[in-house]
Amino acid sequence: MPAVVVAAVVGVLFFLGYRYYSSYLARKVYVLDPAFVTPAHEFNDGNDFVPTNKHVLFGHHFTSVAGAAPIVGPAIAVFWGWGPALTWIVLGTIFAAGVHDFGSLVVSVRHKARSIGTLAGEVVNGRARGLFLAIIFFLLTLVNAVFAVVIGNLFVNNPGAVIPIVVEIPVAMLIGQYIYKTRSSALIPSIVGVLLLYALILVGNAVPVSLDGLAETLGFEQTRNLWVILLFVYTWVASRIPVWVLLQPRDYINSHQLFIALGVISLGVIIGLNTIQAPLVNDVPEGSPSFFPFLFITIACGAISGFHSLVASGTTSKQLDRETDARYVGYMGAVGEGSLATGAVLAATAGVAASQAEWQALYPDFATASGGATGNFVDGVAVFANNIGIPLDIATIFAAVVVISFAATTMDTGVRLQRYVVQEIGELTGIRVLARNLSLATTIAVVIPLAMALLPGGGEAGYTFGVLWQLFGTTNQLTAGLALAVIAVWVTRRGRSPVVVLIPLVFLLAMTSWALLVNLRNFVRDDQWVLAPLDAVIFLLALWLIVEAALALRGAFRDRTTTDAGERPAVARDEPR
Amino acid sequence: MSRRVVLVRGARGPGGGGCCSGDVRPFDAGGQHHHRTPDDPVGAVYRALRTGLPDDVAIEVVSPSNWLWLVPALVGDGRRRGLRGAALRRSVRAGLALESLIAGGSVLASGGLPPPDAALAATRAELGLP
C-alpha cells in the first residue's frame, strides 16, 4: 500500500471528523454559545486572560501539545501491524482525543478558565484533587524516565547527533540573552539557531561522539546508562534556571523544527511514493503482548493524551475569544497530534524498510520493537528526507536531532513540573522542607525517574523501556480518564446525554485496568520487584478513578432527575456568567 | 476587515512545549504548583488600549514565537498601508521584536513599549481617532 494513499485517507477521515463530529459535539453535547462571555473577556488583564484570535491561539495550543510522545508510541505500536495502529490513531483522535481536548477547553471556559486539577476537585469532589496530584506525579516520573532512555538510545545509535544537540544548548542560551537584552525579534535569531543546528549536523557527521570507551572504563554495562545519568544531571541544572535563559529560546527553535519535520515527512511521502512494508496485521510471536489491551496504552499521545487537558484548561482557556472558537482550537489540536502520530506510523512502516523481510527484521519481537522504535522512526524520516534530496547519512542525523530536541525539552519541562508537584505534595503533607528547599525538591524530581530509567531487565534490546512506556501510557490515559469524568459530569448536570464522553472514558479505563492487571501478574511472575509495586499503585489509582467517576456520575444523574421533577435547575451547580 | 492593533509579548511566562511537557498549569491557586507569571508591560498597555479604543478595533496579543501568524499579519497590514520592498521588510522585522506595538500596519514601538497613556495616544492618532 503506498504511504501517500494511507496519508490521504487519514487526512480525509480527520477532515470528516472535524467537519461533522466536532460540529455535532459543538451543537448537541457542549452546546457552544457565541454570546457567552468567556473568561478572556470577563477577566481580561492583558497578561494571562486575553481574548485571542483563534488562529493565534491554535498556534499556541498545537505547539504546546505536539512533541516527541506521539512519535514514540506509534513507532512501537506498529509491531501489531499498521492497521491496528492507524485505526486506533484515527478513531482515537476523532472520537476520544477530540472529545477530550475540546471538552476540557469548554468546561474550563465555563468555570472561569480553571485548570483541570482544580476542576476535578470542584466538579467531581475534593478527593479528586489528591487523585489528580498522584496521577500527575507518576506521569511525570515516567515521562522523564522514558525520554531519558529515548535520548540515550538515540545518542548511542546516532553519535553524529551529539555535537549538534550539545552545541544547541549554548546556542539557545546566546539567542535567549540576545533577545532578552535587545528585545529584538525572536524570529531571525531562532531561524539562525535552526540553521546553525543543521549546519552542525555536518560537523557531527564528520566527528561522531561515542561514550563507549568512557562507559566501559566506568564499568557501565550499557553506554546508554551513562547518557541517562548525564541527561539527568543536565536537567537538574536546566530546570533550576529561568525559562527565558534556555527553555524559551529552545522552544522557538523547536517550533520551527516541528513544522520542518511535518513538511519533510509530507513531502517525502508524496515525492518518494514509499510503500508500506509492514503487514496490515502482524502475526506476532507467541508470548508477545496482545494488542488488546496494550495497543491502546502504547499509543496514548497521538490517539488521546491526558496531558492535553492540562494545556487546554491551563493557558488556552484563558485566551479563548469566543466560546465557539473552542471547536477549532481544541478539536484541531487533537487532529494535529493525530497527524504527527500518522507520520510516525508511516516512517516506521514505509520509510524504515524497503521490503517486508527488512521490516520483519526490525520488529521480530516486542522487546526489539520497543527498544528500536525511535531509531526506526529516525531512519524512516531519514528516508523521506532523502526523497527530497538530502543525503541519507545527513538526513538520519537530522531526524535524530529533531526527536532529541523535542525529547530534551520535554525532560527539561517535565523535571521542572515534577519539582512543583513535589513541593505541592510537601505542602499537602506538611513536610515544609520539601515545599521550600528547591534543591531537595529538584533532586527528588530527578532521582526517582533516574532509578526507573536505569532499571535492569531484558538486556540491550530494551524490554524495560517497553514496559516503562506502557506504564507511561497508562498514567497518561488515567489523566485523560479523569478529565473525561469531569466533562461527563458537567455534561450530565446540564441535562444532556454524556454517552459520547462515557464511551471513550469506559474504553480507556477498561483497557488501562486490563493492561495493568496483566502486567502486574507478569511482574510478580518475573520477580520484578520495582515494577510490580509501581504497577500496583497505578492500578489502585485507576480503581480510585473508576469509583470517583462512578460516584460523581451517579450524583450528576440524580441531580438531573431532581431537575426533571422540577425541584432544581440543571445548571444550578455550574458557574454561569 | 476592521482596524487592528497588534501587541507582541515580551520575554515572560512559563516556557516549554512538546507533548507531555507543554505550558501547563494543573492547579489554579495555592501551592508552589501554581505558575504565577510576572506582569508583562504588554498587559498594562493592553488594558489602556482596550479601555480607550472603540470596540471595533481588534487588539491581538501575540507571542513573539508565533511567527506563523505574526509574519503574514504584519505583511498584510503593511501592504495595506502601501509599504513595499525594503520598507515592508524593515517594518515586519521591527514588528516582530519583543514588546512591539503595531497599529493598522504601522510599527509605533519596537523592542520596548511606551507608557500606557502614551501608547494609547499614539495608537488613537495612528488610527485617526479623535
UniProtKB/TrEMBL annotation, chain A:
Superkingdom of this protein's organism: Bacteria
Key words, A-Z: Cell membrane, Membrane, Transmembrane, Transmembrane helix
Gene Ontology BP annotations: cellular response to starvation
Entry coiled-coil feature ranges: none
Membrane topology: Multi-pass membrane protein
Transmembrane intervals: 6-21, 62-82, 88-109, 130-155, 161-180, 187-207, 227-247, 259-280, 292-316, 328-354, 388-409, 438-455, 467-492, 499-517, 529-553
GO CC annotations, alphabetized: plasma membrane
Cellular compartments annotated: Cell membrane
Residue ranges occupied by any CstA N-terminal domain in the UniProt entry: 4-349, 369-515
Pfam families: CstA
Record family assignment: Belongs to the peptide transporter carbon starvation (CstA) (TC 2.A.114) family.
Protein name: Carbon starvation protein
Organism: Modestobacter roseus
